[in-house]
Amino acid sequence: MSDPAREAIVQAVSAAVGRGQPTRSDPDTGPSQVAWLPPEEDWEAAAASLQALGDELLVIKGRQELAAALGEITARHQVKRAVRWDHRLLRRLDIDRLLAEQSVDCAAIAGEQDLRSLAAEAELGVTALDALVVSTGTLVMRGGRGRERAVSLLPEVHLALVTPDRRLRAIKDLVPLWQQWRSEPGGPPGSVTLVTGHSRTADIELILVSGVHGPKYIYVLALEFPWDD
């Protein structure tokens, strides 16, 4: 194969996967066009989608309700150890203190910790969603330092927090959001994880088993109160 032909193939592949020269978003489909749902819209569609997947969404209207929900979930699954993202939302909510009140030790992922061991030993992993697709119940999470996938993958229970302004109607609405991330300083995130339902698999005899390749239980806490104060 000639060098020009090889170069043309490499350039085509790089463009297809979003590598090479940074590409600015088209004004008609760019960052300003992300179709976030109105914050005042109810959570019924999202709750129904998650319920159909065997997961649960809880609408939280205050800090006392948040503490009560954490208490119920940790008691239900006998959680003693938790690991969480190093995320601003979780810090402002003081998740570590709330879990400590339930006799749960919580560690934040930051720095050069032994991440896999820490997450594998925890019964609960706590994250914050970049988006929730209400029609499918899909959790969207950007990876990065302090936001490693192991937190949502290794513990048996995954607890994801989301605010009303982070909801999208359908999967197709993720396209302009991805374009927005690509246009940010530093380029796109190292990974984006889409989770639709807790881990389920079946063996050759079609026996369905939960929690083999990921969490066995997923809870989404929808925060309907001012948390950034």
The CATH homologous superfamily is called NagB/RpiA/CoA transferase-like
Enumerate how many helices there are, as a single number: 8
The total strand number stands at 12
Name of the CATH class: Alpha Beta
Mean pLDDT: 85
The name of the CATH topology is: Rossmann fold
Catalogue the unreliable spans: 21-31
Question: If you had to describe this structure to a student in words, what would you say it looks like?
Answer:
This protein is globular. The strands form three sheets. It has a six-stranded parallel sheet, with helices on both faces. Strands 8-5-6-9 form a four-stranded mixed sheet, with no helix packed on it. A two-stranded antiparallel ribbon has the order 10-11. About 5% of the residues have low confidence. The chain has a single domain, classed as Rossmann fold (3-Layer(aba) Sandwich). β10 and β11 form a beta hairpin. The chain is α/β, with parallel strands linked by helices and 229 residues long. The longest helix has 14 residues. Helices cover 30% and strands 22% of the residues.
